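EI: anyone free to look at a 466-residue chain?
SC: sure, send it
EI:
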Amino acid sequence: MDKRRKRIVAGLAVFMAFMWLCTLVSKSIYASKLPMVSTTRTESKYIEHIVEAEGIVEAGAKLPVTVLSGLRVEELAVQTGDRIEEGDLLFTVDLEDMKQIMEEQELAAQKVQLQIDEIVHNKELAQNQKALEEARAREDYDALARYQDTLVGRAAEGVVQAEEALEELQAENRAHEGDWEREDGERKTEEEMEAERKAREQEEERLKQELQAAAYAEADARWNRDNTIKDAGRKVEDILQEDKADATLAVYRSELAAVQEKIAAYQEIVEQEGRITSPLGGMVTDVYVQTGGRVPDTASFLLADDEVPCQFRVPLTKEQKSYVNLNDDVKLQLDGRKKIDAKVDYIEENENMPGTYTALLRLPEETGTPGLSGKMTCSKAGDKYPCCVSLLALHEENDRNFVYVVNEREGILGTEYYVEEITVSVADKNDNLAAIEGAVTDESRIIDSSTKEIKKGDVVRLSDGS
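SC: here you go
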């Protein structure tokens, strides 16, 4: 009996050991298929923002080199980046093409000269005609003045004669006023005396009317003389008026001078065998001519002004601009050389690309050459936040930010770890860290990496050290 019991107990022990072993193997197999995650905890840190942007050195100021426009370039002797000295060859000109241009310009000069000669001749004719009209107008004025004075004199003489006739009649009437005796010695009757008195009064009234008419005639003659002479004087004044301003002759002369100046410049180029040289020295930053093309009427070349320090131009995105401001101190590294201190001197938004910006940094004297590449680094310490995590732990979906955390629960094979999703808001972040706010504590184990894609509710296993 005891032996049988011992065998049963031994068999049971073996069975339990086998079951434990199977469970252990099953759990190991199950766990091996689970995603392995590593976790981290939140930390209190400063969110530092470091902006790194690449740019290029350009001239602080540029000097234009202009050449007579319209020339055809036969061969270009310089290119962007070349350093030239005063008198160095820039390009050569197609002389055959230029001679044709000179012939066209000479023909144009002849046409303009003919127009000038025509205008000058017509002005001389007009001046002679004006002088003749003035002489005739003055002659007419003098003759008219003499004639009108004569008419006024005659009218005045008529007034004097009428006054004398009236005074003579009045004197005669006074002398015969009390004369009652006839020529034959007989006494006049009262009827005769009354008839003589009325006759004298009528005669006197007639002479008074003649005097009045003569006075009116004199006044009319004077008024007519004054107005007639005034009109004749105005005709003389009108002739003496200056002609309207006409800039045609001046324009043609200016045009002729410009054409002649071009012809002289072309001739000088012919004498130089078509060689166009630089009037100043410096590094070539821009070339606006090409072989076979014609010289523009603007600058043909731009040279860096060696007396003005170079500047560093760097493009910025809208996000980068939020951490780079005017007068910020930055570090600048040109072409892999030692970093130097610099300052942001200018920032503006690009008109042709809204939302992007350009920053300019003035370089120390004798630092950098146009075309040299470099990198600007701007650091901002930022604020300190109590809850910061790695960007690897932060997820975003449909404008919502969240983190995965690991929690424990009891499963069929014992304690297991599962994924829980917590929505958070981002207070600030940089390229490495994010300051978050939400239902996350110092004890939360936040997943920052996983061997497989995970989602809320997934069972996971922890990596060593998590």
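EI: The longest helix spans residues 95-175.
SC: 👍
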